[in-house]
Design brief:
Layout: H1 17-29, E1 39-43, E2 50-56, H2 90-96, E3 114-120, E4 122-131, H3 132-137, H4 143-170, E5 173-176, H5 198-210, E6 235-239, H6 244-248, E7 259-261, E8 275-279, E9 282-286, E10 309-310, E11 313-314, E12 317-322, E13 327-332, E14 345-349, E15 365-374, E16 376-378, E17 384-389
Parallel strand pairs: 1-13, 5-17, 6-9
Antiparallel strand pairs: 2-3, 4-15, 6-12, 7-8, 8-9, 10-11, 12-17, 13-16, 14-15
Helix pairs in contact: 1-4
Amino acid sequence: YKAPPGTASSIGPQFNTHYWDRKSLIDAAEQMFFSPLADVRSMPMHYGKTLKVFYYVPMLDARNVNDQGIDAAGVTVANGVNMYGGSKDVGLITSKMPTLTESGGRVNRVGFTRLERTGTLREHGFFTEFSADSMTFDTDSDLYSHMSREMVAGANEITEDLLQLDLLSAAGTVVYGGVATSTATVTGEGANPSVVTYTNLKKLSILLDDNRTPKMTKIITGSTMNDTATINASRILYIGSELQITVENLVDGLSNPAFVPVRKYAAAGTVMNGEIGSVGDFRIVVVPNMMKWEGAGATATGANLGYAVTGSNYDVFPMLCVGDGSFATVGLQGSGKAGAKQKFKIIVKKPGEEMATVQDPFGKIGFSSITFYHGFIALRPERLAVVKTVGAM
């Protein structure tokens, strides 16, 4: 191409959009925290924007309510729950066991329930404009590459934020710090401030166990390196940087440090992006853009013990656990054309003759746009868990 030293090209801007767009996508993927956790469902083209899936409730689950059940005596189950559906009472379970007599008979019939889960696709996008002169005369010869990188990084952050919002709102298992019983009662003062404790995290782990939420990482047994530590099979707990000091200072019921820093076991296992350590059955990952509910807690009326406040109310910070198989993201199925299944659709129109219009008769202005679809389905909301706590100022 024509580019003598010190002389601008006379045939238009010289940049390869595909190379920079691809590189920007790769860079952005390294900063994802929540998107890699999702199951992915595809919405076929020409079927609207709503995707519905069925979740079949296990037979002995309290949610399996139907009118098909018959108990061991052949009587239709009054409350609609199969046999002892989810109960832990010894007496009830004993009385509801599906025993048979010598004559058999129409006894112990069970039924099944399925729940409908729904996700809706929504399209998002934005664009930027640039001039032919900016590409020709700007002192930064990599202007377009920087612009492309920032656009993709912005789109990536938006998709992560959309997903984080969905996860926080869909969480079916919620634990509060202190004696709080709702978001509005989370407080940073008094004898029982709503600050997360080791007991809260153990309670959360037990609730997830009861909900049959799989552990996502295996036991790390240490290595031959000096001063390594063993940590439990764990789930991942995502926190904001405001809670890092609180987590690192947690102690167990015997007042021993409960936090194991990542350096103690990093040599023997795979460390995740943003991982800082482990507490009990959780590995802690700090998310720089972790959200919070500003001013959604109790009114600050007494002596604040050092926790963040917005206006006259305490901020509420989430600690988010995403269980395996708990949710899916919804994408638009491709039409078979090259690039049709990419997460982001990028359009670049360079300044030039093809861009000439009545509004821009000289074709001096070009643009770059990016669009993407986002959809979310909470498949097992009981496996999505949040601890709500106050956080440091």
